[in-house]
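Proteins fold reproducibly. Look at a sample protein:
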Amino acid sequence: MIFCCKEHVELALDIMVDEHELAPILEEVKREIELSTPCEYCSNPAAYIVANKNSGT
């Protein structure tokens, strides 16, 4: 599972496909999580969660 901002969503999608060879699930971050969760690639607030069925969602 990867938390990412709008700027890095394509990078997160590419990484998930490369690692799992499956189409990832893209989900918007809920408001209560948004306030405290940063993007994994920069310090911006996360806007999306990129995951697949095997990574916990």
In short: Residues 2-55 form one domain.
